[in-house]
Amino acid sequence: MTPLVQLGRPDRTPKTMVTLTIDGQAVTVPEGTTIINACESLGITVPTLCYLETLRPVNVCRLCVVEVEGARVLAPACSRAVEPGMQVQTQSARVKHSRKLVLELLASSVDLSTTPGMSDLLEEYDCSPERYGPPEPPHAPGTRDAHIPGHHQPPNVAYAARVAQPTKVDNDLYIRDYGKCVLCYKCVEACGPDHQNTFAIAVAGRGFDARISTELAVPLPQSACVYCGNCIAVCPTGALMAKDEYDMRAAGTWHEEAQQVTDTICPYCGVGCTLTLHVQDDIIVKSTSPLENSITLGNLCIKGRFGWRFVQGPNPVASTGVSGRG
Amino acid sequence: MDIKLLDATPTAVERAAVDAVLGAPTNAWDGGARGSARDAHTAPGGKSVRDRRHELIPALHALQGRVGWISEGGLGYVCERLGVPPADAWGVATFYALFATTPRPQRVLHVCDDVGCRNRGTREIEHALESACGRSVREAPAGSQVVLDERDGAWMHSPCLGLCDAAPAALLTIAGETPVERLLGHVTPQQAVGLVTGSDSAPADSHVPELPQHGDPSLVLLKRCGVVDPTSLEAYRTAGGFTALAKARAMGAEAVIAEVSAAKLVGRGGAAFPTGRKWEAVRTQAASPHYLVCNADESEPGTFKDRVLLTQDPFALVESLMIASFATGASRAFVYIRAEYPLAADRMANAIQQTRDAGLFAAGFDIEIRRGAGAYICGEETALFESIEGKRGEPRSKPPFPVEVGLFGKPTVVNNVETLLNVLPIVLEGGARYASTGSGNSTGTRLFCLSGAVARPGVYEVPMGTNLRDLLAMAGTDSVSAILLGGAAGTFLRADEIDLPLTLEASRAANTTLGSGVVMVFADHADLRDVVLRIAGFFRDESCGQCVPCRVGTVRQEEALHRIVKGATLGGTGRELALLEEVGVAMRDASICGLGQTAYSAVESAIKRLRLFEVVS
Ligand SMILES: Cc1cc2nc3c(=O)[nH]c(=O)nc-3n(C[C@H](O)[C@H](O)[C@H](O)COP(=O)(O)O)c2cc1C
Ligand code: SF4
Ligand code: SF4
Ligand code: SF4
Ligand code: FES
Ligand code: FES
């Protein structure tokens, strides 16, 4: 699979072909292809978390690591370019060990309950996150935002440290549940130079205290956020979620399997973004845009993302039955 | 860039401090006064403003130095001046340990509690400070704003300050019109209390380091230290300075690199990469300009050799930088000096200034100093680039390597201070002659930082291949229980393992590393488990936090060690050791950079060589 979108100008320079071996199978791909794309062409899947076709690879989660013969350490398949004669193992014992540990380290410190596909992965890699100790109780609101970089807090031997903290609900459109954040940097990229160019959020702090933050950790309404929701669209864990979905999940009325998904064109402006409406019981409960759409790359503006309530009349949230739906 | 700025306004003092480094604003769009008719019609800026991003950290230093912390108004003004989004600047300010983003007193004493100091006087200092001045800043309740009376002083803990030869060490910072920064050794408890309360004025920084081999005629790298006045170009010239530069220019760039290659010089910063190969790779790059970066971040616990060179022989580094730039076609050199080395930065600035004024720089060439802000990770070469570029010190993924895509995306040579100083003897006497010292592929002399339980701590220069036992004898040891070789990223050795020739080959064969030249000695009565816990804590604190294996792995490693030491294991010590091994292997295999890749190294050696955590059956 080639990337869905080419960021920047299309690359029309002629490419030399490169032959390498992956899990014993030879494959020939254009130079500059990433290992993960070479794997796809052989039908080999590599698990990823911080990788997305529409964003520049940050290669930070290390879930996609593979073994390259002769290399001292494992390589991130999502961003490492192929080289002639490369011998790649995607299922060696070393690879499996690191993937398992990455999954366990995440699962023991982050709430992955709304990360799609995660329970299967944890099972596939035989993970037992409990073995790092009982989960630490949630941090009080704001405390993780105030850690002093580099200054030591001795560990509490009774618990395995976690990033758990109360959900930040500071506006009507979307919530930030950083207890579920794996720090994949996707939202920062989407809000910043890769898509939105608003730069409302960044990574602050360092080490285990690193977190996604607005300036001075101010609530979103005081930040530069324009509520395009493009960060929500790329978040792989559900840490960022539209408020409606969050409320419906809390009320137990969110039924993804019962939702109809329909593509249409956004009615607001002449750009004409493709909208995917997620409809549950004849009510629009979510609006997204397809990642592979060459105009939007999955992005929308505040109107397309959140401005469809008029369809359902004056008080749609009440009528979606956040409280009353059975 | 159209960015939303902060609402808070800077004070006049903050504005002046920032303007002093950035220059006065030129129009209403970059923080100047409103009113000019032109400003209402055109918005100058764009790329020319964005290109100033690399001035972000110097500007934050200006606020920190002037006010003692970075306020919302101050941060906002810097953002306005440089066109940096406030969230982005916040991410940078909260990355570095020496930047405070909540109010902090102007006077702060940073007390080293790292492995070299904690049993050599730090505890007494801590006790005295706790009873006289209250708890350290970091021990204030988690997350609470530490609001203290501005007139009072405060104290904090610090990782290794690079002054282990004069343990216990502390760094004093006093914000003000002329910010004071002093790196102090042999600090007594009473002195510490006086420095925090302000009753003791900061002693002048004229520190002459321990130079145990002072006057020894066999010295090559250290021969001028403590002998030639480090503040005078004339003195350096009289001592033969700048003859290597003249010779190099006469030889030509390719010949210089050939000599460096023939000398088999390898990097002294820890990774031992062949310098000649690095230089040649940059020299032949088509992209321009080329940059040279001198890595003077020296934050590996137990390392202090570069501090001695920077403070005692700065002109030699300037000359080396000029030769290296000439050989690699670099039009600009940067020296990245850790913030904890104020005297080193002053001495280097002075040496650069005098050399520039004497007209010795080639046309268009210059050397610039950049200061770190408290982050070990910025010693990693690509994190260092990010830091110079005004960003968080997050290492980049390699490839591409710096020789192709380095600082500002250009071909870049990065070398350690000591590596560069070796270029002078190589140019003067030729690579072959240089390579005749040492053994095998480990050529030349090397600096070792001896500290801990030794009679004469300090920097020692010995030929490569010298036996560790002889080196220890030079420094004088009595009862040795263990040695930390290579720093926190290195390994422990048992007392019966000291019969080790100090070469790359022999250390590799013995499954250890010379690293940055750390030889820290622990006496018989030393609490080695406490030392291991401190190292584990160091990696947890200094991880940049980018990648999962290191960000969470260093936390799990520290937790497991604490559980063992406190007798609170999950299912017994054997299970904990197995868990440590599993986490350690994943950190080594899957982390992005050398920090995560070596975070288990010393711990592993403490488990397997020292058997500190033996399972009791
Ligand atoms: C976490 C980390 C910290 C490092 N710190 C330093 C340092 O303080 N000084 C240094 O010269 N090299 C340091 N290095 C090594 C540099 O990345 C780089 O290899 C070196 O500066 C290259 O110069 P050399 O070839 O002259 O040794 C560090 C590496 C890592 C992974
Ligand atoms: S909603 Fe849009 S502007 Fe706001 S943080 Fe997310 S990506 Fe940035
Ligand atoms: S909030 Fe979501 S997108 Fe952003 S870093 Fe966390 S997990 Fe990734
Ligand atoms: S290994 Fe650690 S320090 Fe290096 S990039 Fe990963 S998190 Fe950052
Ligand atoms: S998917 Fe490759 S490192 Fe995250
Ligand atoms: S200065 Fe304290 S350990 Fe190095």
Report on the structure:
The complex is a heterodimer of chains A (326) and B (617). With 326 residues, chain A is an alpha+beta fold. Chain A has helices at 35-41, 93-107, 118-124, 186-191, 230-234, 243-250, 302-306, 316-319; strands at 17-22, 25-30, 65-68, 75-76, 87-89, 174-176, 202-204, 211-213, 240-242, 260-265, 274-280, 283-288. Chain A has a domain at 163-311: Alpha-Beta Plaits (2-Layer Sandwich). In chain A, the strands form four sheets. A five-stranded mixed β-sheet of chain A has the order 2-1-5-3-4, sandwiched between helices. Mean pLDDT of chain B is 94; it is low at 141-147. Chain B contains 26 helices and 15 strands. Chain B is globular and about 80 Å long. Chain B folds into five domains: 12-93, no CATH class; 107-197, Glutaredoxin (3-Layer(aba) Sandwich); 233-434, Rossmann fold (3-Layer(aba) Sandwich); 437-522, Ubiquitin-like (UB roll); 528-608, Up-down Bundle (de novo design (two linked rop proteins)). Chains A and B meet through helix 2 and strand 7 of A and helix 6, helix 22, helix 23 and helix 24 of B. The complex binds flavin mononucleotide, iron/sulfur cluster (SF4) (3 copies) and FE2/S2 (inorganic) cluster (2 copies).
Number of helices of chain B: 26
CATH class identity of the domain at 163-311 in chain A? Alpha Beta
Ligands = flavin mononucleotide, iron/sulfur cluster, FE2/S2 (inorganic) cluster
Give the helix tally of chain A. Answer: 8
Mean pLDDT of chain B: 94
Strand content of chain B: 5-15%
**Which quaternary structure do these chains form?**
heterodimer
Gap between N and C termini of chain B: 66 Å
CATH topology description of the largest domain in chain B:
Rossmann fold
Chain pair with largest interface: A-B, 67 and 71 residues
Q: Separation of termini of chain A?
A: 42 Å
- Which structural class best describes the helix and strand composition of chain A? alpha+beta
Rough shape of chain A?
A: globular
Mean pLDDT of chain A, nearest integer? 93
Q: How large is the radius of gyration of chain B?
A: 24 Å
User: Can you identify the CATH class of the largest domain in chain B?
Assistant: Alpha Beta
Strand order of the largest sheet of chain B: 12-11-15-13-14
- The helix fraction of chain B, in percent, is 40-55%
